[in-house]
Fold this sequence. Notes:
Elements: H1 2-10, H2 16-20, H3 31-39, H4 44-93, H5 97-102, H6 106-109, H7 113-124, H8 132-135, H9 147-152, H10 186-190, H11 216-223, E1 238-242, H12 243-248, H13 255-265, H14 269-282, E2 293-295, E3 302-307, E4 312-320, E5 325-331, E6 335-347, E7 352-357, E8 360-364, E9 369-372, E10 376-380, E11 388-399, E12 404-409, E13 421-427, E14 433-440, E15 444-449, E16 465-469, H15 484-488, H16 509-516, H17 519-533, H18 536-541, E17 549-551, E18 558-560, H19 564-570
Parallel strand pairs: 1-2
Antiparallel strand pairs: 3-4, 4-5, 5-6, 6-7, 6-8, 7-10, 8-9, 9-11, 10-11, 11-12, 12-13, 13-14, 14-15, 15-16, 17-18
Bound molecules: cholesterol.
Amino acid sequence: MEALQAVKDMFPRMSNSELMAPVDDVAVTTDKLRQQLLKEGVSESAIQESELIMRNEFASLQNQLMLLKQKHRMLMDTLRQLETEKVDLENTVVDESQRQCKEVGPSARLRQDKYSEASASESEDDNERVDAAEEDTDDEENTFFDTRDFLSSSSFKSSGSDFRTSSFSSDDDDLYAYASDESVDPIIKFAGTKFPYVKRRKKLPNPIEKEKGVSLWSMIKDNIGKDLTKVCLPVYFNEPLSSLQKSFEDLEYSYLLDRASEWGRRGDSLMRILNVAAFAVSAYASTEGRICKPFNPLLGETYEAEYPDKGLRFFSEKVSHHPMIIACHCEGTGWKFSGDSNLKSKFWGRSIQLDPVGILTLEFDDGEIFQWSKVTTSIYNLILGKLYCDHYGTMRIQGNHNYSCKLKFKEQSIIDRNPHQVQGIVQDRSGKIVATLFGKWDENMHYVNGDFSSGKGFDSLSEAHLLWKRSKPPKDPTRYNLTRFAITMNELIPGLKDKLPPTDSRLRPDQRCLENGEYDRANSEKLRLEERQRQARKMQERGWKPQWFAKEKGGDSYHYIGGYWEAREKGKWEACPDIFGHIPCDQM
Ligand SMILES: CC(C)CCC[C@@H](C)[C@H]1CC[C@H]2[C@@H]3CC=C4C[C@@H](O)CC[C@]4(C)[C@H]3CC[C@]12C
């Protein structure tokens, strides 16, 4: 926050009237010139000609000045707009770091020690960059060998043809990547693929209005004259998904959990944790090339995703506005996944660093539990250049049985020819490394048995197995760059609308308008809801409680209290307020 303030102070704030004021009339007089020329005995006509020349010269100078002033004004507005975006982004994804520091509860402390150290030091010295990845001074080597070189070598066997199922349309093949490894049991191969087919859309609706140009200026001019703090970021920067829906994106590759469940059932806990690790990495795949902001859900907004085609149902709710926390709960086939997410941010001028706080928990029906936290994400080029994000740091997947896993996400450097690398190891209770993982968070993950964490011995290596491969992008990519899975998330499939509570993200009007390409309406609806959301803090202070999640006794994390699907069965939504409509006076 301090850093943000410091940067803000760097921008001089001129009032709009100052900026728009016409250039003061520069009085140009030729009197002195005339007198001089008269003294020299120059003729009247020559004097008049000289005066004309002078006046013309000044007029063109004045024109140039006006143009410069106009350019200056545009630049100032651009700067202001950029500043607004920054602040808005902060508000959406971030919350007061101090508040969070104070609120570090037992569950947060459960996380890896190094990580908590990093967050604690933040309040002491906000300006010192604490790099979770660098901080990790573990015994193992930190070197990242070049997986690309390795993957392209002839010793690598498991790429080639991936597993395909016939029960899916041609569009859906490629979904369940699996090594062409004959030894893999077909039951494992088929785990997570034998679910009923549900017809879902393959593209977003065609935009009703023409897409607006990417020009920042087109948006700036709409905001001229507004108080900086009241300017809301135009909907143009949003993608037609809420953060609640975005959290469901982590489950795109849920078949990895189905496989993990099946492996464990057969007593192979190593294969189980390898699939869990691949799942944890796969959650990042959809962030590549995504540069729009998800909608910030309203307090109490919910999102349900019933996906029998993936053998799961997912539910999420925004449980707190300050700090912004989203809780989710997902029931799969043989497993349950839950967590709450809250982002701590640091602003570095041209980039923003987001540190997710909170633990994700995966519990298999046989009682095996895995817990991990997400790594740091940074968004670069906020001011100039192409916006992109990177994920880096160490992720520890802690299991309650035999194995635990450590995954390192390599931080991208400016000249990195091979970014997005992830490498990991699986250790047994005694600390022995039993398997090595490697890949890229936006491409694939492989494993080899044994310890290859130093990268040595890879030449002689003949067996690397594919665990996960990112599925191909949609046929009709939009400017939001949504994955095929994300495209399905805001769809109101036939019959669904009647079953939803009034709090579901799919019913949020501005988001729906944006999806339909009605940009102007989307903007005005967004303004209305944002105005409404300003009441949220007050509501929370007056003891507002989430509907479907509750804080653990003495803990800090939210847990699903149940009842959502039961209420849905009965259509009992009386307790769900109409959050997208107009606010009743008694709640103001
Ligand atoms: C509008 C302009 C200025 C900014 C656009 C910012 C985009 C790139 C930001 C806004 C919110 C961000 C997301 C917020 C939260 C998470 C969860 C984290 O565990 C992985 C990264 C991820 C998924 C972020 C990816 C980048 C993201 C989508």
